[in-house]
């Protein structure tokens, strides 16, 4: 397990978060969501963020995406400070966020065309990623004809089509049933192994984090900091019942349990604040 600061000096980081602080609101309504977060993500790494509900996991991901600006601190991607959204970061939301009037292929290629990519080239790239995510034959299907897992595959293909430096994923399988979620986790690892993208993935599930991650960043209750970082040095594919898997999962749970208790206590003693806080 790494230190609370999460600084890895073994190789050059792909992503660095330095002393991040994020506040919402003003005056008496001000909420400190993120207090002082420091971590790195290595190139080609699958890094997962977990933490108590309401601790600022999604907020942290939005900061990396450039959808939100930090109150203090900075985020560097390949050594360059993130100032706003950009094609070097692909984002996969929990909700499918597809255009219902567009086909699978058109959904995947749309963003490329908006960026000014030649329509023929955009279609070629979209076709490539539709194949990678296993939806060949569904290019002309519309979202309403697809299952939840298929819709999320389209979202992943759309994010990958930009050829981003890092893929940001905000609980992408949270709305899926348990069996579909398990299948999608395996499918995501297959796509990741093929593309070798750097991934920063948010989940509330320690089971999912242990199954997917190279490293797991555990956040404290709000205002969040890095509680600890757990290396998941296990071969893939992983088994939920393997002793080594269970040992790593238990290490993550021990870090998280105390913070979940703190978050619960905060919500019961300050219910108004809990309801009016920022996204998780």
Describe this structure in words.
The chain is of the alpha/beta class and 280 residues long. It has a domain at 1-84 and 198-280: P-loop containing nucleotide triphosphate hydrolases (Rossmann fold, 3-Layer(aba) Sandwich). The chain contains 8 helices and 10 strands. It has helices at 57-65, 104-114, 119-132, 148-161, 178-195, 206-212, 243-269, 271-275, and strands at residues 13-24, 31-42, 46-50, 72-77, 80-81, 89-92, 166-170, 198-202, 215-219, 224-231. It has a 10-stranded mixed beta sheet with strand order 5-4-1-2-10-9-3-8-7-6, with helices on both faces. Helix 5 (178-195) links the parallel strand 7 (166-170) and strand 8 (198-202). Helix 2 (104-114) packs across helix 3, helix 2 (104-114) packs parallel to helix 4 (148-161) and helix 3 crosses helix 4 (148-161). The longest helix is centred in the C-terminal third of the chain and has 27 residues, at 243-269. The radius of gyration is 19 Å and the shape is globular.
What key attributes describe this structure?
ten-stranded mixed β-sheet, 280 residues, 23% strand, Rossmann fold, 8 helices, alpha/beta
The count of helical stretches stands at 8
Largest sheet: 10 strands, mixed
Q: What spatial order of strands do you see in the largest sheet? A: 5-4-1-2-10-9-3-8-7-6
- The name of the CATH architecture of the domain at 1-84 and 198-280 is 3-Layer(aba) Sandwich
Helix-and-strand structural type = alpha/beta
Overall average residue pLDDT:
89
The CATH first-level class of the domain at 1-84 and 198-280 comes to Alpha Beta
State the shape. globular
CATH topology group of the domain at 1-84 and 198-280: Rossmann fold
Radius of gyration from the alpha-carbon trace, in angstroms: 19 Å
The helicity comes to 25-40%
| SSE ordering | EEEHEEEHHHEHEHEEHH
CATH superfamily of the domain at 1-84 and 198-280: P-loop containing nucleotide triphosphate hydrolases
Estimate what percentage of residues fall within beta strands: 15-25%
Low-confidence stretches: 1-10, 272-277
The CA-CA distance between the termini, in Å, is 24 Å
Number-wise, the strands total: 10
